[in-house]
């Protein structure tokens, strides 16, 4: 290892975490964090319900219902972590939140075409995803997260 590489490692090990941007959190960023968090909580509630029904109900395949519940609970982690990161103004959190919204759009489309009460859920999910996407690509939000126009 060269001396230059050793110095880079020392700087990286001793360097403090990047400071949060100064100033108040923009309302757009707060709204994006809140909506992303609500989506994560809804996923966690759905996963918990699926898991409980798989354990106590009488599904056709208890193993499949339980695994579905565990999977949805695991998927709930991404928007919840992203929401916390947005709230704390961490620049890394924008990517996971954007991915969550992009994935939510086809899910909303499927719900809308499911009929019945699923239509309302699909419309609500689509609106929330589109709103968060718009909020997160807004220059005010990107600047608050410390993301410059060149990045």
3D structure, described in words:
The protein is an all-alpha fold. Helix content is 75%, strand content 0%. The chain is built from six helices and no strands. It is elongated and about 55 Å long. The mean pLDDT is 87.
Shape: elongated
N→C terminal distance: 31 Å
Which stretches of 5+ consecutive residues score pLDDT under 50? none
Q: Could you tell me the radius of gyration in angstroms? A: 20 Å
Order of helices and strands: HHHHHH
Extended strand count: 0
Q: Which structural class is indicated by helix and strand composition?
A: mainly alpha
Mean of residue pLDDT values: 87
**How large is the share of residues in beta strands?**
under 5%
Q: Helical proportion? A: over 70%
Biggest sheet: strands, sense, closure? none
Number of helices: 6
